[in-house]
Input
Amino acid sequence: MLETELIELVKKITEQKCESNYLEIKSAEKGCPKIIDTLSAFSNQSGGGKIVFGIDESQNYKICGVYDAADLQKKIMEQCKQMYPPVRPLCTVATIEDCTVVCAEIQEIDNADKPCYYQGSGRLKGSYVRTADGDVHMTEYEVYSYEAFRKRIHDELRIAERANLNDLYTDDFEQYVLTLKKKKPNFKALSKEEICRLQGFTNENQPTLTGILLFGLFPQAFFPQLRITAVSVAGTEIGMTGNVGERFIDNCSIEGTIVQMLEDALQFIRKNMKIKTIIDEQTGNRKDMTEYPVIAVREIILNALIHRDYSVHTESAPITIRMFSNRMEVENPGGLYGRMTLDQLGKISADTRNPFLAGAMEVLGKTENRYTGIPTIISAMKEQGLPAPEFVNERGVFKVILYNQQESSQQFLSDVMKEILVFCKQPRTRSQLEQLFRGRFTIPYLMKQYVHPLTEKGLLGMTIPEKPKSKKQQYFTVKL
Output
């Protein structure tokens, strides 16, 4: 950060009088404060963060200055060295109103090195994440999820304790073996015991979670919550009721093998989707169009089943399907795995959380296993003239949201746009817009679907129009 950028940042802080997910404010007027929790949180979050010293939050964000800029930086480095892996801050010093302020920029570390934690407390108690403007301890599961990637732990291969080989050697398994030997000749000479071991269906001659989920007569007898719960409601939120007070239009629990759950989930969605008939102007032929592209829905359900977290930490959490009047949501336990980020989805090959399960589903012909799922979903929505899918990656949860035609109608857009225009009567930053719509939209979706169209229509202006992607960019209302 340049000195001029720090001065501009301090000015913004004193005007907005708030912290954020990416900004922490410390006084440091009488000494170096403890920042190990923030060092951990910023190192673990996407995009890192900044710690600004020399502003007193308790005095209405007054610029108070730091006690000694040189010693403060030394003390900051001492705390950074107590982290694992060590944090390497970039410090900037500036003088404002005869007061010295210091900014320490904390970069996000690689996912393979997460979590960053305070060594004095250990990995579990010393790991933090950023929530709004505060730092909170990581849950045991969040810490484990990073370790599982780093240590290449395959929870899909854990033993199904109460199961035996008779629960695995079903007709579905026998059919799979025949298919496998046709597709992969190297397996022809192997016994079914050897095939099970190599394919991850058994571990120490006992059935694994993968084997039972693929071939068991009733997998939920061993893993009751590894299922799908599906609901369809009349309104736009859970709790809204229909014309006669009904809470759910439809509600069911989907169980069985992975393949059975995939097919039953698609049947539930088809049953609860609206279908409109279109007449081709050229041929006069009728064509039925579903509310959501079936190919996109199938990929979403398939991805949820194959790539969900199957560790003991999420064993009690089912996949959920929620169908509302304006959208459909599919949520599975386990956030993005490995080094993958939301911005990279569909653009690069991803680390696979459950490679044995994914490989078996490829043999069954249910998936290509070529990382084409996300591009297929995006393309199918675009071809049907629907808004782009929204991908949400939160603490231990991954969600895909599809908006239907009603959601993209001018009336709905007007409601959201009007809210933005009212909010931007005073210039607002991306982070402020993100705070306003937190829980409703992710910031990339909000910018693409609403903010950018408003700027294109001339209803929303930019303070730095020549640099639309500037970090200092603010949006303001031109007219209502």
About this structure: The chain has three domains: 3-138, 228-403, 410-477. The chain has 16 helices and 22 strands. Residues 407-412 have pLDDT under 50 and may be disordered.
